[in-house]
Structure formats: structure tokens, C-alpha cells
What we know:
By secondary structure, the chain is α/β, with parallel strands linked by helices. The chain is built from 10 helices and 14 strands. It folds into 2 domains: about 10-150, Rossmann fold (3-Layer(aba) Sandwich), CATH 3.40.50; about 155-300, LD-carboxypeptidase A C-terminal domain-like (Glucose Oxidase, domain 1, 3-Layer(bba) Sandwich). It has an 8-stranded mixed beta sheet. Strands 2-1-3-4-5-12 form a 6-stranded mixed beta sheet, with helices on both faces. GO terms for molecular function: carboxypeptidase activity; serine-type peptidase activity.
Amino acid sequence: MTRPPRLRPGDRIGIVAPSGPVLRRYVVAGLKVLEAAGYRPRLSRHLYERRGHLAGTDQRRADDLNRMLRDPDIRCVLMARGGFGAMRIAADVDWGAMRRDPKVFAGYSDATFLHLGFQARSGVRTLHGPNLHGLGFGRTGEIRRWLSWLANPLPPDSIRELSAPLRIGTRGGEVSGRVLGGNLALVHHAACTPYMPSLRSAILFFEEVNEPPYKIDAMLTHIALAGSLKGVRGMALGSFVNCVPKPKHKELKLGQVLRDHIGVLGVPALGGMKAGHGPRNWALPLGARATLDSRRGRLVFEEGLVA
């Protein structure tokens, strides 16, 4: 999978909103972080538009994203925020532009649909991590990790190693493969579409927020029935925030749902990584090779994001 070129001081970062509406004060805070790191942000034309739960019309959101993908001066495309809407414009995204001129794409949550598309249609690694909103109010360590992946072909060990202290299921051992995935709901939506990459031989990364266990059960079941989990080598789970049974509902708890599905796969699985919607959202490169070590409880990237 192609590595985009590393970012250098003075490079331009394009800010896009292909999903939900953005908040100006969060954008301003995030821009200060990028400028302090020596980068030059450029806002998309319709960044502050709103159409209900979307950041403007589908056509304008797609045009803004494509304009950044096609501009050779833009070396990174960063989501302003998540929400919903990226999958609505998938058919209009110029996936070929990313293939012809690889650049960093960064974001999380609803960005997952685009991450998957860039891997399936463009063959380019991307960066799962804070959106611009999150960078503006992120912690120093979180920002440092994010910046390190952008600028260093092989970041230090302290950046490439993510603790995953929770062992899920009974299978142990050590497995290696490309890390793919993101937000569980968006991977579920992408299954059986042209925007879903093959997960065979991959280490699958999931995170989620505000979904009760029975819905997580349904999502995992659908992904499995779609055939997308065939050949997966392991699972590395990030934050699952507020994923608890609804009041007075009799349903399985999250841990049991995860053990059921992982047990069927028979692969090593670790959880508790600080990635996703939790209080820490450590960046990680999707499409890069890593080793999942059950004995030591960690996911270690053997490769970086950029060239």
C-alpha cells in the first residue's frame, strides 16, 4: 500500500468537512495547532455551510474534498469533524486523484468510510486520529503523536507502540498484518460496497461510541455474513465509549458480545487501546504493517505512514 510523502515545514494542509457541520471556535483552535507546527492550513470553500445534519449539500462537500485531492500544493487533507455524511458522497469522490498524487488523509469517526475507500480504491495509507476539532483541544502527547506520524517515515518506538492491555477471548500468540478498520458502524456500512478493502491477513481495528451491545452484535454479525472477516489475523480494539445496555433492557454486555464474535474467528484479540472517541485518541496509520503481541499486550507498528 502506497505511502504518501512526508510533510515538511511550510506544507499546506487542506481542511474539509465532508460530514457534519463544523464549529468556528473549534476550527480556530485547531488551526493554531497546525500553524504552531509550521504548516499552512487552507480552508475549503464551503467549510462553514450547514444543511441540517450535514455541512452543506452533497455536491459542495464532494467538490471541496475533490478540490483538495486534486491540488498538488495540498500535502495533507484533514477532516474538520465527523458526524455523518461521508458515505453520501462516496460515489462522487475522485479516488483516482489520491492514487495519482498520494497525500496524507487524516481524521476519524465518519472519516472511516473515506479511510476504507482510499485503501480500497486508491491503495494509499491514511492516518486515523483526531480531526481538526479534536486537535484544537487535544492534549500535548496526543498532538505530538499525530505530528510525528505526518513528518517521520519511521517514528520513534514510543510513537509506534500502542498499549492494548485487555485480552479478549482465549486465543493468545503473536500475529502480524496490515492494520485496517476504524469506527465499527462505518465499517459495517461499508461492507458489501465497492469502498470496502479486503481484510484478509489484516489486523482489524475497531472503536465505537454510544451504541448499545445489541447493535454492536448486529454490526459484527453483518460484517461476518458479508464475508469481510474471512482471513482476518487479529483484532485490536480501541475505545468503546458508553456502549452499555439501555436502561431496563435485557441484553448481553459488550464484553460477552465481543467474546462471542472473536471466539468464532479464533484469532488473538486485544482491547483497551487509547484510540477513538475516548479521552485519548492516539493516531495510528491505517494500511501499515504491525504486530499484535498478546503476551505483552501491545500493538507495535513496524512501518510508518509516510515516505
